[in-house]
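TEACHING EXERCISE
Course module: macromolecular assemblies
Task: Read the component lines below, then compare them to the predicted structure of the full complex.
Student: A.B.
Group: 4
Components provided:
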Amino acid sequence: MSMTGSVPGTDKRGIRELGGEEKVGWDAVQQGVVLNSFEGTTENSAFLKPEERNYADFNSYTATVASWRIIKPVYNRDICIDCQNCWVWCPDTSIISRDKQMLGIDYDHCKGCGVCVEVCPTNPKSLLMFNEAADNDDELAGWPVKEKKAK
Amino acid sequence: MAKEFDLNEVEVWDGNYAASQALRQAQIDVVAAYPITPSTPIVEGYGSYVANGYIDGEFVMVESEHAAMSGCIGAAAAGGRVATATSSQGFALMAEVLYQASGMRLPIVLTVVNRALASPLNVRGDHSDMYLGRDSGWIQIDAFNAQEAYDLPLCAFKIGENMGVRLPVMVHQDGFTTSHKAQNVYPLKDDIAYKFVGEYKPVDEMLDFTRPVTHGAQTEEDWHYEHKAKQHKALMDSRPVIDEVFAEFSKLTGREYKRVETYMMEDAEVALVLLGSSVESAVLAAKQLREEGIKAGIIAPRCFRPFPYDLVREALDVPSLKAVCCMDKSAPGGAMGALFNEISAAAYTTSSRPLISNYIYGLGGRDFAIDEAKRIIKEQKAHADAGHITTNIQQFSGLRGPKLGFYETRRS
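Instructor-supplied answer key:
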């Protein structure tokens, strides 16, 4: 699923619907319901960016749960001050940030809880919630202006 | 490096001490435990072996039995050889986590010292806790005396850790009658015992950082059923592995174990089926009655799970066999006893199709003596002679008050 703000590359993020994996029989399921995070072995995976890791099919990273969401956050790069508040608070690691620069939303895993909007300190906010069906570019074009303090 | 423990050829050990020595010799990496009567000395023993340098391991004192089994699961998933002990209420508190250990296919060994379940609160031995575990997906093996309480944990590691099995194993012994009764025990030397058990080989261990894994995942209707079926097959397929390990142990020690122990069944006309420390009393009773001309035999499922349907059927398929009594040492909770139900199911597919009745006995540590065993065997002889069950099908042995019983054979 590709939307504004996604990190490009040879990424395996959200390449299938959750539950869309091949359903094998009892004889082929993994003993003990053990789920491998990655295909094969890995070295220093903690130092790799997610899009550089060879995630396995049963890692939730490769599954999209976008259909669970009914409202979504839209991110406005022009206002954001890269404070990382949303990145810290997001319960689903769905704020994508590199070198302390906010890049956008992981719409494959964001559940639309709105915490990122709550914690955004800018005026106007750099993240706002909209209906899932809304067009991001239209909403960005009609973004609210700075609120003046009441005198 | 752990020190070698100086052992005599024959030691005087109770069942608890015997089990703790077996855990030491298997070189357990982690014991997470919470004390409860009558199993406390097993983990207390392990703790002292750690403190005194007889083992390189970790003793983790936790806040409950739920936490004890949870700690064991964590340590086993991390890649260690793990064991603990419990009884009764502690076992009940572990119940939720027992199912997780077996579903996660972690070969933990749990030494269970069988004790009654409250209420009323009772510290004595019966099989309520053992029966509570029978659907938990664990292999359950029963020791009838202190020697077996030493031998069977050594076998348990080898069975559970077999690459075709990878399931947790309970080794049961009866509270007090076995756990606190000092008997002659012939232990193996440390190196011989460890060589028999073998090096621990972890599977999908969490401490392998080159292959990160998730243990304890959630599955819903699209995956759960397949995983449970695979787990059940592993449990059913553990039968030949148990036989092989017992055979190997026999070669090493001369002590022979079978998934179903039978005594004098070759020409038996009547038989008792029972578990635990009562087996030895029943065998004595049967021997004495044979001198009086009653051809009595005893069947004792050593392996309670996987239920040895195959060998029970074999044991019952004796042409001379007319009447069998299944003895359940657990309050049956509104049904026939579990042993009765399972033995009957196996007997139904035999050609001998003996009459089968049920006794509840020994609840909360009520004594079961040889005379009572003889009386029950004689009752079976009366059923055999009459050609039908002459009493209620379910009765209570050693119970004060008016005779209590349920159901009769339907005769036209």
